[in-house]
Amino acid sequence: MALAMSAALRTFKMRLPALALLLLACPARGQAEPTQQQIEAEYSPALDACLRSGDAARGVSVAMGACMREELALQDSRLNAAYAAIMKSLDRSGRAALRAEERSWIKQRDAACNDVAVGGTIDLVDIPNCLLDETIRRRILLEARGR
Fold this sequence. Notes:
The protein is mainly alpha-helical. Helix content is about 80%, strand content about 0%. It is built from seven helices and no strands. The chain has helices at about 1-25, 35-40, 45-50, 55, 60-90, 90-115, 125-145. Residues about 1-15 and about 15-25 have low confidence and may be disordered.
């Protein structure tokens, strides 16, 4: 019984970062959580072009991961712009609260996305893809907040 309980506890602890990310990403003030379809609709045409060319088109993980990282850089700049726009509209305490929220979100996002790792070359695709989707999700939620 104790052995089963400790295995269950280990499983729960491994999933804690992902659960915390979900809680942090939960929409505030009646915002709807973006669907995966809405997130993917935000991908740039450059990502599709990249994935359909060269080694990425042949399924080479390193090349596919490079495509994801390029898209992540683009989407991260969009997230930073949304964050900056909201920060301008907040008073001092609001800025401090958003800054703390963002720092916490980054830690949770990174932990949850590292949890998708399985230990193979597919991690070169899966981890950046997770970071990409969570970055877009966060931007959508921040932009909705700023309206």
